[in-house]
Amino acid sequence: MTFGRLLTLILVFAPLSMMSFGGGQSTIPEMQRQTVSVHGWLSDEEFADVYAIARAAPGPSTLIVALIGWQVAGFAGAVVATLAIFVPSSLFMYWAAAWWLRNELSPLRRAIERGVAPIAVGLVFAGAVIVLRAANAGPLTLATTAAVCVLQSTTRISTYATVGAVAAAYLILFALYQQSV
Amino acid sequence: MPDEIPPAEHARPAVGLGRLWGTFVRIGTVTFGGGMLSWVHREVVERLGWLDEKSFLSGLTVAQVLPGANPVNLALYVGLQLRGAVGAAVAVFGMIVPAFCAMLCLGFLYRSYGRFAIVHFVLAGLAAAGVGATLTMGIRVARRLPRDFVTAVIAVAVFVVVGVLRWPMVPVVAVAVPLSVALAFVTERRGSS
Q1: Is A146 an 8 Å CB contact of chain B?
Q2: Mutate which of A27, A51, A83, A149 to test chain B, going by most B C-beta atoms within 10 A?
Q3: Cα–Cα dist B186/A129, whole Å
């Protein structure tokens, strides 16, 4: 029974791993269809909750599969789902990256490098806009985004200091807001 | 784990597996969602100087286009370049294992405390910071693009189609990549002859 569930997790997530061109975000709609409609592992609300946690949690948000796997088959389910989503794409990436590093002077690699760079830039900005829109960004969100962008562009402040400062600022803002109410 | 192993055949800075592991564990546990790639850039290129801008950018490109979580693919590329296959595995597991544990803990905590408004508030702030980091990286990378008309048109077109019009990314990338690479191939040919 458990074995069957674990196998199903692999059969659902391993193909998604190979389809996630452009990053894990692109497979979220299909993941939702599989977990909610096809297999009935989670309700719509539960999926929305799990998605919010994964987006807010540290680390790659593709780890949403760990939470789904946990729901289906406990800890073993979480481990199996995580391996199923990362192993196939990582093997492919390994093969491609090794070719890439071996063929530094190949004209094909130079063309790929030159041709794909503008697409990568377009996708980076598109991703930022999509996240802001999904979060219904208000003035505070936009101000935070702008502040971090300026701070990062003009100083050498570390990642951890930035994250800590933003968390502390939001805690203080929340406390002030509570007092004023 | 010994920290002073000479680097592989590349002329890269000697980076111990322990430091590689530690760096990606920290990036994997402290950074959030979409901002991760830019945090990797900041740590690996700007602060630690392990890779230069050019090889980072080509790794970023490959990591974004190929299937798989972008930050994990990027970790694999950085690890592979610094310490070969072992380095790739160390970087990938460094990125995933602690974040996996954090994810399970958060799932548990969220079930207990998710109803408190302060949790949502702080998480929203961190998400905004992630977007700021993403923009920083985007600006920096955009500055390094070749300055020609075709490159600019492609970058803007991809942004508008995916970011503004919300077309699905997979078919857009599937059409744009071969087209753009073919154009670049012709451009490079013309430039060299």
Answers
A1: yes
A2: A149
A3: 32
Is residue A17, in this structure, part of any structural domain at all?
Answer: yes
A6 inside domain: yes
CA distance B93 to B88: 9
Contact: B151, A118; criterion CB under 8 Å = yes
Contact B70 A23 (CB under 8 A): yes
Domain tally, chain A: 1
Query: What is the per-residue pLDDT across B56-98, written as a single tens digit (0 to 9) for each?
Result: 888 887 887 788 888 999 999 999 999 999 999 999 999 999 8
Question: Does residue A49 contact residue A36 with C-beta atoms inside 8 Å?
Answer: no
* DSSP-derived 3-state class of residue A175: helix
Hey, what are B105's tokens? 């803990």
Question: A81 lies in a domain?
Answer: yes
Residue of A nearest to B25 (CA): A59
Tell me, yes or no, whether A87 lies in a domain: yes
Residues of chain A found within 8 Å of residue B39, distances taken between Cβ atoms: 159
Q: Which domain holds residue A16?
A: 1-102
**Across all residues in chain B, what is the average pLDDT?**
83
Length of chain B: 193
Cβ contact A171–B57 (<8 Å): no
Write out residues 6-25 of B within 8 Å (CB-CB) of A. Answer: none
B85 in contact with A, Cβ within 8 Å: yes
Q: How many CB atoms lie within 10 A of CB A103?
A: 13
Query: Is A119 in a helix, a strand, or coil?
Result: helix
pTM: 0.73
Looking at residue B8, its pLDDT comes to 44
A92-138 tens-digit pLDDT: 999 999 998 888 888 988 888 888 888 878 888 887 887 787 667 78
Backbone angles phi, psi at A59, to 5 degrees: 90, 175
| Per-residue pLDDT tens over the stretch B139-180 | 887 888 888 898 999 999 999 998 889 887 777 888 988 999
H-helix segments, B144-168: 149-158
Question: What is the predicted pLDDT for the residue at A78?
Answer: 96
Distance CA B26, CA B99 (A): 9
How sure is the predictor about B9, in pLDDT bands with cuts at 50, 70 and 90? very low
